Amino acid sequence: MITARLRVIWAFAEHVSSDSDQSEAVKVVTRYHKTLIWEQTRHMLRLRSALREYFPAALAAFADLTASEALELLARAP
To answer: What gap in Å lies between CA 39 and CA 10, rounded to an integer?
Structure first.
């Protein structure tokens, strides 16, 4: 999903002059997108670490901790 979004952005960027306002906007959006990916990864690693220490069965139960079902269940857990 992320890869598809980046392809669309890069396809758009190829048609825009490198010194235009649109190209600057694309640069800002891609930088922000990259930062969001890094933040998501950082939070997921923190969650995995906390689960490993306090609730290791959750790691075994959920293959993908980013799945909405896993996050919903973990949010309801005490």
So the answer is: 22
**Residue 13, class by beta-carbon neighbours within 10 Å (0-12 exposed, 13-18 middle, 19+ buried)?**
middle
pLDDT tens string, the chain, 78 residues long: the values are 667 776 777 776 666 566 788 888 989 999 999 999 999 999 999 999 999 999 898 889 888 888 899 889 888 887
Contacts of 70 (CB under 8 A, 6+ apart): 58, 61, 62, 64
Do residues 51 and 59 make contact, with C-beta atoms less than 8 angstroms apart? yes
Q: How far is CA 61 from CA 14, 16, 47, 64, 74, in A?
A: 44, 47, 14, 9, 11
